[in-house]
Design goal:
Layout (H helix, E strand, L loop, with lengths): L11 H7 L3 H18 L23 E14 L7 E3 L12 E13 L4 E8 L12 E6 L11 E5 L4 E11 L18 E7 L6
Antiparallel strand pairs: 1-2, 1-3, 3-7, 4-6, 4-8, 5-7
Length: about 200
């Protein structure tokens, strides 16, 4: 009589226990991947925020400008007591001791709460040339602007906005001897009025 051991057939419950739970595993992996993305910056968060614009904040830029109005010339010689009006400046032939004077209207625009600017009478190259040019002295005065801060230079502010009258005197050095400067010319356009805002480095 032979003996045998019979193996019991798996029950449905046993088969279910052995079956891999693929659906649950996939869900866990998906959650882990999503968490990693959020921690790594791949996600977005909605933080609270708000903003309020300023009101009544229009500001306006100021202005700086200089225009020249009518100008008149006079000429006074070394032996003359009074200056004579010059009707044609291009026809003038000056000699040592002469004083040629320009009376020039300036229209200055200075608009700005903190604006400061320097008004200058600057000279071009013909006034520095040997001979006639180097023997001409040029001096600008504007009586309404007070005391100049340097030669031919006035410091202006918004209080100086408006019309002013400048006087520019061109004096042929009476000590010029020999025939220095004879027949030479200077260009009066080399007398230039400039108005420049003053920066911190210039104060």
């Amino acid at each position: 009589m032979s003996s045998s051991i019979e193996t019991a057939a798996p029950t449905p419950a046993t088969r279910a226990a052995r079956r891999p739970r693929h659906g649950k595993a996939k869900a866990i992996l998906a959650i882990a991947a999503g968490t990693a993305l959020l921690l790594g910056g791949g996600g977005t968060y909605a933080y609270w925020s708000t903003s309020t614009a300023l009101t009544n904040t229009d500001i306006t830029a100021g202005n700086l400008a200089l225009t020249l109005g009518p100008g008149t010339w006079t000429l006074k010689g070394a032996l003359q007591n009074t200056a004579a009006n010059v009707t044609d400046i291009a026809s003038v032939k000056i000699v040592p001791g002469d004083v040629l004077t320009l009376t020039q209207t300036l229209d200055v625009t200075l608009e700005g709460n903190t604006l400061a600017a320097d008004l200058k009478a600057e000279l071009g190259s013909t006034f520095a040339a040997a001979g006639l040019g180097e023997n001409l002295d040029v001096a600008m005065t504007v009586s309404t602007y007070g005391t100049p801060i340097a030669e031919n230079t006035y410091r202006l502010t918004a209080a100086n906005n408006g019309i002013a009258v400048a006087t520019v005197k061109i004096t042929f050095d009476p000590g010029t001897d020999g025939q220095i400067g004879v027949g030479q010319k200077v260009n009066l356009s080399d007398v230039k009025f400039t108005l420049s805002q003053v920066g911190a480095a210039q104060n």
